[in-house]
Structure formats: structure tokens, C-alpha cells
Amino acid sequence: MNEKFNKYFNTGDFAKLCNVKKQTLFHYDDIGIFSPELRDDNGYRYYSYQQFDVFNVITILKETHMSLKEIKAYLDNRSPNTLVELFKNKVLDIDIEIENLKRIRKLMETKIFITENACIIDYSKISLEFFDEEYLLLSNSIENVSHKDYFKIVSDHMNYCTLNNLNSGHSIGAMISKDNILKGVAENYSFLYTKLDSNNDLPFTFTKPKGLYCVAYHEGDYNAIDKTYNKILQFLKNSSIAIGKYSYEEFLLDEVTGKGYDNYLTKILVEVKSPI
Fold it and tell me: From CA 64, how far away is CA 97, in angstroms rounded?
């Protein structure tokens, strides 16, 4: 080998250094985005170690979703100022992506926790449990509304949660009033709700009060959930405990975890108050 090439890497060695295929280097050379520093008389390509940083920047920019065309435009007009401006903008984009990935990770961790616990629950058990207060974002009232209004209310609520990144892994819950529970009209809900991590002063924020709740689980089609409410009411009557203002329902298992309503599991928490 000619001594002037001793300090250079051939295409295969440089490709290994960069952890890419030789074809990637050929393609970059062909489109003029990254070319070897030297060529010998036979046309063989040779790269210097100084070029590694340039290739690394190209790889990083690709990972930030820049196209090769955009990267080439930067490289064709590179300067200290354009690098600083480009990287500052990319840092802002990366910060946004990091926050989004953190949100997705938290959503997945919540789903894992809920699903694992749902798989070990005694579905037949009805119990009294104390809960701390929780913050809920309520929809507009869905009680006695038309199908058209119901659709709009649900859409508005879901769109608001999506736009404000409020979907944390919990299913959309539903509240039903004491009067409707006692009348046996369990499908006539009062509000839909989304759980919030904290009281962040959003419109329609509602505080689910801390205190004692009757907890039960409805297995299967939620259209038959009145049967479970009847069991709850009988349990409370036998325990001489009065029902409170609302009950709160949320899916623990749904279409995400199993196909068909028969595989659904709904958790019901009914507010209770002083003994009858």
C-alpha cells in the first residue's frame, strides 16, 4: 500500500468503525453527503479518523428525523453559526420527545400495574375500603342526553385529554348518582372522568372525596352491571351502611387485554356514609 494511505481507513475498516455497512458509505458518497478524503489510482476510497465526527453527526441528525436531503443542505452550507442554530433547535425537539417518551412509559407502567393486579383479584368479593382523595377531570353531564349530545360530550372530553396529554394509563371512568343506582338505571351515568395526577386547576376538575367506599367487581358485559349493583345494595343493607352521593366505575380489563365483553372487568367504588 502506498505510504500516504497508512494513516487512513479503507471502506471496510471505516464502515466497521462507524458500525454501518459499506453500502451506506457508497450511497453517501454517491449522493454527495459524505465522501472519502482520498482515493487511490484504482478508485478505492480512504477515510481519515477526523471524518468519524462528521459521520457521527450525520447519524445523530438522522436519529432526530432529519432527512438525508436536509442533512446535505446543512453540510453544504455548514458554519459554526449554522451548527449552533441547528443543534439548539434539535435540543428543543429532543426535550419534547423525551417528555413524550416519559409520558408513554408512565402510561405503560400504569397499565402493567392495573392489569397484573386485576389478574389476582377475587372478583366475587365485596369489601369496604378507605381511599384518599383523587382528582378527576369531568366531562359535561351525560345524564339523560340524546345520542347526538352524548357523542359530542364524549368526543370533546377525549379530545381535550389528548391535546393536554392527560391520558395516564387509566381507563376513562364513569360516575353514576345515588338516585340512579337506587332506581336501577345503572346505564344512566352522570359524568365521564379521567384521573389526574394532581389538582392542576384544569376546568371541570372534581375532587373524589377521601373516605370509605364499597368496592366490588363486575365481570363480563357492562350492560348487565345492574346485577352487581344489586349485590352491592344488598351488602350495604346487611351491613347497615348508607350509600353516598356517587359511585365510580373504571375498567381494569377491557378490549385492550381481551377480545369481547365477556373478558371485561369493571371496578365499582360506591361512596358510603354513616350507618343507617
Answer: 10
